[in-house]
Structures
1.
Amino acid sequence: MSSGHGEKDIQKPIAEYAKYMKTLIPININDSYKMKSKFYVVADEESIRTGIIAFRDFLLLFCDRLVSDGYLFVKPKITDNPTSYQLLHNLNQILIFFGYYGTFNESKSSLLVIEMPSSTSTNSKISVSQIIECLRFLCLCGFVFNGVDLTKKSLCISKEHILDISYPDNPLMLIGLKALSIADMEFRTSRRYSNDDNLFRCDYRLLFEKEPDTGDVLYDILQSFPNEIRDFAIELHKRYTGFGMTCVIFSRGSEHVAYSFIKDSKRISSTQDIYQKRIWEFNLSFKHGLCLLVRAKKTEKYANVINEFPDYLKEKIKAGYGCDRKLRNERCQGGCMGIRIPFDEIILKMKDEIILWLDNEIE
């Protein structure tokens, strides 16, 4: 997410961002879901499930390689979007391109490609030199590319010069890549953003025939956090969805799990519509970690309640929220998103007050 207002920051080394990325990769993958019929043209059900697990394992290796070797490919730069790394953007697009447009050979041990992303209008910003750089990095992660010489500065891919893509360590990974690429291209409702890394999150729930349970998704997002933190988050989720709040979950530079009240309407609200009406949300980002964000608008009605809160929470609430530059003459820290409370061990000592605060805000 951009720091906003044209302000620029220097990026962290990509190794640090890769460690954050790794925490978003699902460790426990549900194997009991029913898939959309669309995916059975890729392979049989068991092969798809196994392929997705293999792709998940590839992503773990991918992140480890970014930690160990990413500095050779990415130098931190000053930018208005410190979490947008061009290498990751290109790798995401190239892998989706290979998965979506590539065709399997007879044994499904390799994908065959007759054109490169740079020849398509949607990926025209990826230069030949950037493609070669990406393929070199993917070789470090176990890919093998036959039909192209990566020591040269040009590529010649066509019906006469086919690119053969394989992953010898586990060929089923390519089935997972194809299924997830189709899911991203055809079934993702929140589309790509400037630092898109959708494929790197192994969002296998896009294959589900039915919408996934939002509580299950939240549980997965918080997989790397202590049990006490995760349990309290799930407690809040169940409490407020039980009160009739609608929960929407999406990624946009960071993970958003937002809660809104949606009035009965014949018009079906989009994820973005519901998010715009949010009262509070969980937000997990590279910059801030896991936070509770509350767009408190009724504090004057329960000021006496707030006065009984611990000083830390009371001061946060009374400071309010809004543009950091206008309120405090500070650099943009995303203050317009809501009152930001780090969701850590400190918040566990204020569980009752947090619940009382949210209860008063939604009345």
2.
Amino acid sequence: METQRLEENRARKSDEVDRRNSQMRLTKGIMQATEKKVIARLFAKNFLSKFKRDTMRTMIDLGALRRPVDLSTGATFVPQLYNQIQFDMQQYHDH
């Protein structure tokens, strides 16, 4: 009778230790997953903040964000002006 009671006590204690260890492993896994998410979020946020800034600067430098008036001036007016100057110079040279 005494032996059975001691075995039951030992089994209960062993089960309790196993349950606590399992609970600690589960908590540790949840904490690690949460830390990974926070680190990934911070990394992505920092990367995208620089990416967005650099992308805007690059687009501005390439002229992709110019006003349509500026683009039409460079694409339409300036070539016509050069052609007119060339024509005038040719006319002057011929006379």
3.
Amino acid sequence: MGRAKEGLDRFLKKNQQDLIECPYQPGHLRISKSACSKRYRLSRKENSTPFGKSDLFYFSFRRGLAVCRTCPIGKKLAVA
């Protein structure tokens, strides 16, 4: 467990400038700027595949992106 924490600390120190704290996700999620812009763009795409009760994973996935749809941070990063 100690090695994993050391690796995480090293990663965070090295990539600190590329991470942002998302105010719209629960738990003070730290996410990369690249991942944020990808989530924004994906949330803005029209849902071409209908989902039903049998596709609970897809429903959960799209529901998680719902907060990204109107995010001003994601919009700014997607344009940049």
4.
Amino acid sequence: MKRRRAIGTMLLTIVLSMFAIGMGADTPVKANPDPLEAFRLDGSWRMVVTATNPAGLQPFDSLMTFNVGGGLVETRRLYLVDLAPNTLLETPGAGNWRRVGFTNTFDITFIFLLQGAPGNPVLNGAPFGTDKIRWKATLNPRTGELKGPWMSTLTDNNGNQLFSASGILTGKRIPIEPL
């Protein structure tokens, strides 16, 4: 009986000592609140926008920052020349995102404000309308690529649809490069 009690005391001492050593370690132990950590969207991304409809639009680069909680900021070169004969300027985009269920897919919507570019014979700096982008993005945790189909709808200030386009957005997270 004394021997069993001594072994139990010794085991309890070992367990408590290991616990105390673990609690004193420099590395904090923290719970991971996101079970889909490998599928995190927040951060900044360099994207390539490719239009498949209408044909003939050139691919271009875009920078996107996804904020924790669902906010999005997007920017690209702001001078639009593909809407000949009138050129336009657009603001950086702002919008929101949300995860689709417990998957690595996201619904994303963002908009730009449009105005006539300098020299536009009709608008020359005047407000024009908006460009709304809807995107179904999937994050591949093996490649780190974010990709999916998008659709753009340009409307004038009265809400009339003037132009639409669709295609594929593809990109990679902008890596941190220590100095």
